[in-house]
Specification:
Domain ABC transporter: 7-240
Radius of gyration: 19 Å
Distance between the termini: 60 Å
CATH class: Alpha Beta
Keywords: ATP-binding, Cell membrane, Ion transport, Iron, Iron transport, Membrane, Nucleotide-binding, Transport
Largest sheet: 6 strands, mixed
Number of strands: 9
CATH topology: Rossmann fold
Strand content: 15-25%
Pfam families: AAA_15, AAA_23
Bound molecules: adenosine-5'-triphosphate
Helix content: 25-40%
CATH architecture: 3-Layer(aba) Sandwich
Subcellular location: Cell membrane
Number of domains: 1
Number of helices: 8
GO biological process, one term: double-strand break repair
Oligomer: single chain
């Protein structure tokens, strides 16, 4: 019997929702959602800005016991409270087996997480522990991308459930490819990923489930059908013409 996916499915307790006309239930992708099944290895959530990716992924993370701004499950902190109530209306189907490792990596609030970690590991001894876990002495003394990669490379130990919200935000194209390779290593070490992304590089992960959020709801799409793949490919192959069109020349 397979341990993965650790998180098999989420379901929305639709009968409990007070109104589908108010945030977050009025978002078209959430309004029609009853359940979502996850791939044992990698599930992507994609969609236009404002389509509800962060709202959905945050609710999944909160339901799993993470804090809004990310980190491991031990990182229970909050610098502000603007999470949606969606997580209160989720139930889930989980594996008979729990993962050994958990991490919620969120580009938007990564700075706050780094600050929380600096404060939580204050003494010299704690900082040694931190350095062993993250591979660097201070996340704030790295660039945004470097500290993101340090977390990916060193902190995630495998056999884990990892939820990422736009991890590419800090990463160069080369680092996105390095992240893709790390994700594959961790999948081979029995990990499951749920990732909201705009990255055509990350989305290339072979065999992943890709859910696209839009005004008509949520549907599963193939990599080559995604706007990320098609638009990027078209732009790069025709960038001179595209810039002329975009500039109205
Ligand atoms: N706290 C909030 N209160 C009210 N509306 C909100 C709140 N947070 C987000 N929204 C709205 O919900 C919608 C979905 O936002 P969300 O952040 O989930 O989008 P997204 O797909 O992650 O976008 P992006 O790609 O820009 O990060 C947007 O229209 C946004 O304006």
């Amino acid at each position: 019997m397979q341990a993965k996916p650790f998180l098999k499915e989420i379901q929305i307790k639709r009968e409990m929702v007070p109104s589908f006309d108010a945030y977050p239930f009025h978002i078209p992708s959430i309004r029609g959602l009853s359940s979502l099944k996850f791939h044992p290895d990698v599930t992507f959530i994609i969609g236009e800005n404002g389509s509800g990716k962060s709202t959905l992924i945050e609710a999944i993370a909160l339901h799993m016991g993470f804090s809004t701004e990310g980190g491991s499950k031990n990182a229970q902190f909050q610098t502000h409270n603007n999470s949606s109530r969606l997580f209160n209306y989720l139930t889930s189907i989980k594996s008979f087996k729990k993962p050994n490792d958990y991490f919620f990596l969120r580009a938007e609030s990564y700075y706050n997480l780094a600050t929380y970690m600096e404060n939580a590991y204050e003494s010299e001894k704690d900082r040694d522990t931190f350095e062993r876990q993250y591979g660097v002495r201070s996340l704030h003394e790295c660039s945004h991308g470097e500290s993101f990669m340090a977390t990916l490379t060193n902190r995630l130990t495998g056999n884990g459930l990892y939820i990422f919200d736009e991890p590419e935000a800090a990463l160069s194209p080369n680092r996105q490819m390095a992240a893709l390779s790390l994700i594959n290593t961790l999948v081979n070490e029995n990990s499951q990923f749920i990732i909201a992304t705009h990255s055509p590089i990350l989305l290339a992960y072979p065999g992943a489930t890709i859910y696209q959020l839009d005004d008509s709801g949520i549907k599963q799409v193939r990599y080559e059908e995604t706007e990320h793949y098609m638009v990027t490919k078209h732009f790069l192959n025709n960038y001179t013409e595209m810039t002329r069109i975009l500039f109205g020349d």
